[in-house]
Amino acid sequence: MDKQIAELYADGKVNEAIHALIGKIDADPRETDNYLQLASYLLEQGSPEQAQKLLVQAKGLIKNPQDVDYDLAVAYYAQGEFNKSLALLNQIPNDDDTLYQKALVYLKTGQNEKALAHALSIKRVDDHVKELLGDIWLALGELKAASASYASIPEKQRTAKVNFLLGVSWHGRDRDRAEKFFARAKKMDSKYYKQARDQYASIMKLVAGKDKKEQ
Questions:
Q1: C-beta of residue 160 within 8 angstroms of C-beta of residue 150
Q2: Spatial contact of 65 and 59, defined as CB atoms under 8 Å apart
Q3: Cα–Cα distance between 69 and 56 in angstroms, integer?
């Protein structure tokens, strides 16, 4: 990774950083790291299609085309092309990053048990993994496990999404506690909160019914 360009990007000079990397690629089309750095910026900026095109181009130019497969799989995932993403991931050794990305794909395609198996195999469990495990447990209807996973993320590190889903996981068991999490989510991101409330309205009804039966 080019540190000077990385500093430009970190300082918010996104276009400058991207153009600098394009210049480096034009000057040396066989250098893998420049493609990977540029693709990561394009993905972060919400341009997965451009990242995909860039990495497909790279595969025809660099010495070891498989070196960009993981990032290309992420680009496919970001565009909802889950089968293409998984096909690439299955060609890569199962390190923590690959297991995480596979779990995401399986969760998106409704293969929740497979998602769980892959997520539980991750050795380095950071906040992103804890959030993913919470999402998977929630999809499986395991509300207590979901709330435990989300709650293991330090309070200051929780996003609006994590707080909202903590609320969902507690909704049937402790309505007051759930509403506190919802209030935090709303304060952090009111737009997300409204969308999530609409999205999860029917699920919360099911959750409430499920928890009452279990009590």
A1: no
A2: yes
A3: 9
Chain-centroid distance, C-alpha 12 = 22
From first CA to last CA, the distance across the chain in angstroms is 54
pLDDT > 50? residue 109? yes
Q: Residue 210 above 90 pLDDT?
A: no
Confidence of residue 199 (pLDDT cuts 50, 70, 90): confident
Long-range contacts of 88-92 (CB under 8 A, 24+ apart): 91/66, 92/66
Neighbours of 177 (CB within 10 A): 15
- For 20-36, write each residue's pLDDT tens digit: 999 999 999 999 999 99
Token couple for 46: 């919400």
Q: What are phi and psi of 76, to 5 degrees?
A: -60, -45
